[in-house]
Design goal:
Layout lengths: L10 H7 L2 H16 L3 E5 L1 H8 L6 E6 L2 H12 L3 E4 L4 E5 L5 E6 L1 E4 L8 E4 L2 H6 L9 E3 L8 E2 L4 H7 L1 E2 L6 H4 L2 H13 L2 E2 L1 H12 L8 H11 L5 H11 L1 H4 L8 H7 L2 H7 L10 H12 L3 H8 L3 H15 L12 H8 L4 H10 L3 H14 L8 H6 L8 H14 L5 H17 L2
Parallel strand pairs: 2-5, 10-11
Antiparallel strand pairs: 1-2, 1-8, 3-4, 4-5, 6-7, 8-9
This protein binds cytidine-5'-triphosphate.
The site of cytidine-5'-triphosphate has 12 residues, from α8.
């Protein structure tokens, strides 16, 4: 393919692809910088997405000048609040629409040692672009009135976009910031690109040097989990395994074809087992599956990607049930109580992981039935009803109420009186057995 010369000015593209609101915001941002004697550029992801004709909600601005002073002035003009991070010379504005504007001073970043957080110093736009992760993310567009829309592409990002390549800008890039190894795979898969050859070699070298171990579990989590929430997560996981990144995170050496096809079942599993509640993200279903295959110790996984206590708990239960799927799933007409009591307390992560590993439609339909019709069912009586019926409160109440629930599930339609009778019979039997 003959490379197409990058357009010098992409104003027409911006007019065509941005909403009027976004376009006017950028025009206003440029004017304001002019008033303050500074220059501001749209930079990184949004420029890449404009050129790829992909929607982008990000608004990342870089300022040649005092970025924090500029951010304050922009926030005042937009009448929004602004949070500054002086150490990194960055600020973020939260828009009432839910979007964000990130403002950064054009800066270089110095890494004291591999994976450390950088110290920063102001520089020109050109130098700022060269310190970035990949050429496709190292383009900027001027927002200044005099050359609005001018594309700055010193690192060859436009050519790499056309060639479909993810290319680092210098040999130490992955060592400076090892999260880039994970990001690289995200861009490859999301855009259907490939790692440029030398970039792939550098990534493998950085893996050999155990670069991922230099960064905090929190940073590993912050970059990995959003990727596992994308539609293309199954392909991302397969590619992370192929490159050895997954192994470096303690999540297994290989993703075989059968495993890959189970991963492909996760999005349909989430659709089949919809739930109202806000819960842990879909990413955890993938983690449960790969932790199960790799026999990853969940406590160890947590040291790798900082799981919360709740997440650890959920993953442990999910891994246990997919490793030992209950026999009830293969029964043609199981009792509802059996289904309920076997799957009771299953999280959406556990349920979706279990659904994804089943290739039998019958098993899947049992999981769906539990999820949609059974998991919230409760008996029509409670402990107070047992006391009112003359029972002595005690530890056996729990089992008696489960008996009431069993009657409700298996002997429908049942009345509260029938459930109460079953619970009392159960208590009487328990008494006799002492
Ligand atoms: N960047 C970088 N190194 C990183 C992370 C980010 O150089 N480890 C730079 C890139 O220029 C990137 C920009 O910071 O484009 C913004 O980062 P981010 O918002 O995380 O990514 P985007 O490129 O905007 O991609 P996405 O669409 O995933 O948000």
């Amino acid at each position: 393919m003959t490379p197409v010369k990058p357009p010098d000015n992409i104003t027409t593209l911006m007019e065509a692809r941005l909403s009027t609101w976004q376009y006017n915001l950028l025009r206003g941002a440029g004017q304001l910088a002019g008033e303050l004697g500074m220059r501001v550029y749209l930079v990184g992801g949004p420029v890449r997405d404009l050129l790829l004709n992909r929607p982008s909600t990000d608004c990342d601005l870089v300022v040649e000048g005092d970025g924090l002073r500029y951010a304050e002035a922009l926030a005042a003009r937009l009448n929004v609040t602004c949070t500054a991070h002086e150490r990194f010379m960055t600020a973020v504005m939260h828009l009432p629409t839910g979007g964000e504007i990130d403002v950064a001073t054009a800066r270089r970043e110095i890494y004291e040692h591999p994976g450390s957080l950088p110290t920063v110093a102001p520089v020109t736009l050109g130098k700022d672009l060269w310190r970035r992760d990949f050429s496709i993310n190292a383009m900027a567009v001027s927002l200044a009135e005099e050359d609005f829309g001018q594309l700055y592409d010193p690192c060859g990002g436009h050519g790499d976009l056309q060639a479909g390549l993810v290319r680092v800008l210098h040999d130490k890039s992955f060592l400076d910031d090892p999260t880039r190894m994970i990001r690289a795979v995200g861009f490859e898969v999301r855009f259907g690109f490939s790692l440029e050859n030398q970039t792939e070699n550098l990534l493998k070298e950085a893996l050999n040097q155990k670069a991922l171990s230099y960064i905090s579990p929190e940073r590993r989590r912050d970059v990995l989990l959003p990727l596992l929430a994308e539609q293309v997560a199954p392909t991302i996981i397969t590619r992370l395994a192929e490159l050895g990144v997954l192994a470096a995170l303690g999540l297994g050496e290989v993703v075989t074809e059968p495993m890959a096809s189970v991963l492909q079942q996760v999005p349909p599993a989430w659709a089949a087992l919809e739930g109202e509640e806000e819960g842990p993200p879909q990413a955890l279903t993938y983690l449960a599956l790969i932790a199960h295959w790799a026999r990853t110790d969940i406590a160890h996984l947590s040291t790798q990607i900082q799981l919360t206590g709740d997440e650890e708990q959920i993953l442990r239960k999910a891994v246990a049930i997919i490793g030992n799927p209950p026999a009830v799933l293969s029964m043609r007409n199981p009792k509802l109580s059996e289904l309920y009591f076997t799957l009771e307390g299953l999280s959406r992560i556990g349920a979706t992981a279990l659904w994804a590993v089943q290739d039998d439609p019958l098993a899947r339909s049992h999981i769906e039935q539990f999820w949609h019709n059974l998991r919230d069912v409760a008996a029509d009586i409670d402990g107070d009803d047992l006391v009112a019926a003359g029972a002595e409160p005690g530890p056996q109440f729990g089992a008696a109420l489960r008996e009431a629930l069993r009657v409700k599930l298996d002997e429908a339609p049942s009345t509260a009186e029938q459930q109460l009778a079953a619970a009392l019979t159960h208590l009487a039997k328990a008494d006799r057995s002492f």
